[in-house]
DNA sequence: AAGTTTATCAACCGCACCGTC
DNA sequence: TGACGGTGCGGTTGATAAACT
């Protein structure tokens, strides 16, 4: 039999990678290989581990389960509150939200949102994934409203600038010139009406409160 | 106790971006 | 400069545990 997936584009079809739940043995091998080679070149990692998993699957397993310092379960009230606030701000950018919650993965937060928080927000709404667009403050921002792509640029700019503030790299000019010449809005938010959280520390909850203050002012005006 | 429904979460899928050649 | 491979992201699926009838 084995007619699981016939899509030509799916590498699993031709290579017949195994799927489904990971065994303890697979976890152990994966951890071993990553300890030696590091968490990169996932295709190579998968090959070195010697089991029949694709690199992508290995990456996911590592990031969501095996990685050190992962917290599992028991999302605290504080974390929940932060997720709610961040979701209001960012929408379904789970990886960005996870980035503000040390030890939590995007997958876990996404699952938690879909199973718990989306119901809290919209009790009448049928449970399930949140809508792709239009739910976040970022996406409602006037400068960005006409372009989904622009949202991506904005988020990327935020990421880039966060990286820059960590210490070393870039000047403002590099960001605006090298990667992204297309966006027509002012990404650095010099003009009004836009909460710039990009310089805030990931672990500092204060900026979230400041955002909410900003948010309520924005709605009053 | 057995059958059915609902909730949860690990894993998969497809797409888009980025870096390298 | 375009093709290609690697990577990351968000949406979705499927297995199974828990709750309910």
UniProtKB/TrEMBL annotation:
<keyword id="KW-0238">DNA-binding</keyword>
<keyword id="KW-0539">Nucleus</keyword>
<dbReference type="InterPro" id="IPR001005">
    <property type="entry name" value="SANT/Myb"/>
</dbReference>
<keyword id="KW-0677">Repeat</keyword>
<dbReference type="InterPro" id="IPR017930">
    <property type="entry name" value="Myb_dom"/>
</dbReference>
<dbReference type="GO" id="GO:0000976">
    <property type="term" value="F:transcription cis-regulatory region binding"/>
</dbReference>
<dbReference type="Pfam" id="PF00249">
    <property type="entry name" value="Myb_DNA-binding"/>
</dbReference>
<dbReference type="GO" id="GO:0005634">
    <property type="term" value="C:nucleus"/>
</dbReference>
<dbReference type="GO" id="GO:0030154">
    <property type="term" value="P:cell differentiation"/>
</dbReference>
<dbReference type="InterPro" id="IPR009057">
    <property type="entry name" value="Homeodomain-like_sf"/>
</dbReference>
<protein>
    <submittedName>
        <fullName>Uncharacterized protein</fullName>
    </submittedName>
</protein>
<dbReference type="InterPro" id="IPR015495">
    <property type="entry name" value="Myb_TF_plants"/>
</dbReference>
<dbReference type="GO" id="GO:0006355">
    <property type="term" value="P:regulation of DNA-templated transcription"/>
</dbReference>
């Amino acid at each position: 039999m084995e007619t699981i997936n016939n899509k030509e584009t799916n590498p699993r079809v031709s290579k017949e990678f195994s799927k489904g739940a990971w065994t303890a043995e697979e976890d152990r091998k994966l951890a071993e290989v990553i300890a030696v080679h590091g968490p990169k070149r996932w295709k190579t990692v998968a090959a070195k581990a010697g089991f029949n998993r694709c690199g992508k699957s290995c990456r996911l397993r590592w990031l969501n389960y095996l990685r050190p310092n992962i917290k599992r379960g028991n999302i605290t009230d504080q974390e929940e509150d932060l997720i709610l606030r961040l979701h209001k701000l960012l929408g379904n950018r789970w990886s960005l939200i996870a980035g503000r919650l040390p030890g939590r993965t995007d997958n876990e937060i996404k699952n938690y949102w879909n199973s718990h928080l989306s119901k809290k927000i919209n009790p009448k709404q049928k449970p399930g994934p949140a809508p792709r667009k239009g739910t976040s403050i970022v996406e409602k921002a006037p400068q960005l409203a006409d372009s989904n792509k622009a949202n991506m640029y904005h988020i990327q700019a935020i990421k880039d600038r966060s990286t820059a503030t960590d210490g070393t790299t870039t000047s403002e000019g590099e960001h605006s010139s090298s990667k992204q010449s297309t966006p027509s809005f002012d990404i650095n938010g010099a003009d009004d009406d836009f909460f710039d959280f990009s310089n805030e520390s990931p672990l500092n909850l204060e900026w979230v409160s400041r955002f909410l203050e900003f948010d309520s002012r924005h709605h009053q005006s």
